[in-house]
Amino acid sequence: MSFLPCAGKTELLYHLLSRCLLPLSAGGLEVDVVFMDTDYSLDMLRLVSILDSRLNAARSSSSSGSDEELLGSCLSRLLVVHCSSSSQLLLTLHFLETTLTSRPRVALLLIDSISAFYWPDRCEGGTSITKQEEKLSKCAELLGRLLRDYRITVFATCHAIRRNYSGPSSFSSSSSSSSSSDIDRPYLCRPWQRLVTHRLLCSRQETTNMAANNNREPKRRQMFTVHCTSSSSSSSSSKTKSYRSSSFCITDAGVEFI
Q: Which residues contact 89 (CB under 8 A, 6 or more apart)?
């Protein structure tokens, strides 16, 4: 998933985590999740707040167990790992197979973000492209093996960067579309790109709601859009792509799709 700043990426991650961690009775999948936090951006209080809100919404008079027990059960299915360098990320992936063996209910590996060490690796690799991409290429190889052997789902975020900078010129429709396509262009190593089957690009826009204000004054709210591109190939020479867009807003209970 590629994202621009303040494009709703973090809230989408909480939505995905909640969907996986919640019990079946609350509309969740009730599976274990491994969250590899390389950006150190995971807000556990926000995640707990979303889980609590959705548990309360799904709670019925006949349900058993207290709120604390249900929350504790959800959080017990989450394993958070922090990585501060690409070497640590690579080492963690090496030992992840042990975790998957001991926790067979792990269905999702979430990495936020896979591009966190892109610039440090470029500096460390010097002028050699091979050395710059060496560690991420090895990470991609390990992830490919985990996908093949354990049939898990891997969801990773990626910072969007603009590589073509034309200076402080005025924005036009043509320049906007070209910069958007440049941001959408993959820039990580080819072994990683070969693993990706679905790509999401998050963007933000503001809408005006006239009916929400008693004084009939326009009230602005933020709405986010996620564009999904999925690719599949039946052979090495043929490849098909499909596109889909969805809009959502962010409430106290998390993401609400429109």
A: 36, 38, 83, 117, 135, 139
